[in-house]
């Protein structure tokens, strides 16, 4: 099929109307997801939204990974449209709510976390900050055994010198450095890096292991204030493994420089996964030998030494 991509100067290589695109997909018996973006009501707003559309399409078209929703094409006129694969499963948010208060199976929770970490590691390796990592933007595959990251609407290319818009994302999952000690004006710029995604991942991992809403009982603004100005974090239940608690707490420490990279997170989660045996017939989980458990302890010690050095 024809792929409709934006060139660097934001002109379309091929122009098709939404109707033509739909007819093409129907004819080829291809089920897709179509995201329609509004153009705005003023010329200023229109220019901003068109730039955001071009940026989103450019990033989606150049990063390909098994845990990223597959980009198919885009159309600029008469509507701004982005076409991606359609995952028949629901969002991770809906899935967690459908089984709440029952927690996820531990193996499944860790495998979901690894899927997310791999997707984020690939984005960061390509210089992209997602800035809106949360369960709503994580979609389950048809067999509900894997997740893929979607929605690059707030994603940006990371630059050392560039100042980026603060207060970007969703409050309960936003890193505290996206705020300042004084309330930021709308659209104010400040420096931050890809470790904002690591903080968000820490909140998501906590959700995967608890199946609870972060900062329960608080409004979105109250949650943001508690995290940014009172250094509060969701409480980690006592029944969560100390190794997993360490990963979560490492991700949401106040100082972004002390948070692990996603490649380190992947190694720690894999090391923990290796300490678990396959489930027995009655669903209980047994542990492997102390030698396998030692793999995680070694990684944990290395990371702790790095934090002490800093």
TrEMBL record:
SMART domains the record matches: S_TKc (SM00220)
Protein kinase domain residues are 1-273
Q: Which UniProt keywords apply?
A: Kinase, Transferase
Q: Which domain of life is it from?
A: Eukaryota
The record, for Gene3D superfamilies, names: Phosphorylase Kinase, domain 1 (3.30.200.20), Transferase(Phosphotransferase) domain 1 (1.10.510.10)
Name the CDD domains for this protein: STKc_MAP3K-like (cd13999)
Q: Which residues cross the membrane?
A: none
What biological process terms from GO does the record include? signal transduction
Under InterPro entries, the record lists: Kinase-like_dom_sf, Prot_kinase_dom, Ser-Thr/Tyr_kinase_cat_dom, Ser/Thr_kinase_AS, Ser_Thr_protein_kinase
Would you name any one GO CC term?
cytoplasm
Q: In Gene Ontology terms, what is one molecular function of this protein?
A: ATP binding
PANTHER family on file: PROTEIN KINASE SUPERFAMILY PROTEIN, SERINE-THREONINE PROTEIN KINASE
Q: What is this protein called?
A: Serine/threonine-protein kinase STY13 isoform X2
Q: Which organism is it from?
A: Cicer arietinum (Chickpea)
């Amino acid at each position: 099929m024809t792929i409709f991509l934006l060139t660097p100067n934001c002109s379309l290589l091929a122009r098709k109307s939404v109707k033509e695109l739909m007819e093409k997909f129907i004819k080829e018996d291809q089920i897709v997801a179509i995201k329609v973006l509004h153009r705005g009501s003023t010329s200023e707003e229109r220019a901003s939204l068109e730039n955001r559309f071009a940026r989103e399409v450019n990033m989606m078209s150049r990063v390909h990974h098994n845990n990223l929703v597959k980009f198919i094409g885009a159309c600029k006129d008469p509507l701004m449209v982005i076409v991606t694969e359609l995952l028949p499963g629901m969002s991770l948010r809906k899935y967690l709510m459908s089984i709440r208060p029952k927690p996820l199976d531990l193996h499944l929770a860790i495998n979901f976390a690894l899927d997310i970490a791999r997707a984020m590691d690939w984005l960061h390796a390509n210089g992209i900050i997602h800035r809106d990592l949360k369960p709503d933007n994580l979609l389950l595959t048809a067999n509900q055994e894997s997740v893929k990251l979607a929605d690059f609407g707030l994603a940006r290319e990371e630059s050392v010198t560039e100042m980026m818009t603060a207060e970007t994302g969703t409050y309960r999952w936003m890193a505290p450095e996206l705020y300042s000690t004084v309330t930021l004006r709308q659209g104010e710029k400040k420096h931050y890096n890809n470790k904002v995604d690591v903080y968000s991942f820490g909140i998501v991992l906590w959700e995967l292991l608890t199946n609870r809403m972060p900062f329960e009982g608080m409004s979105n603004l109250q949650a943001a204030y508690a995290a940014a100005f009172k250094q509060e974090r969701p409480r980690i239940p006592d029944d969560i493994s100390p190794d997993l608690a360490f990963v979560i707490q490492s991700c949401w420490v106040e100082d972004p420089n002390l948070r692990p990279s996603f490649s380190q997170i992947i190694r720690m989660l894999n090391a923990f996964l290796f300490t678990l045996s396959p489930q027995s017939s009655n669903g209980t989980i047994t542990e492997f030998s102390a030698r396998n458990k030692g793999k995680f302890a070694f990684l944990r010690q290395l990371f702790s030494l790095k934090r002490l050095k800093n």
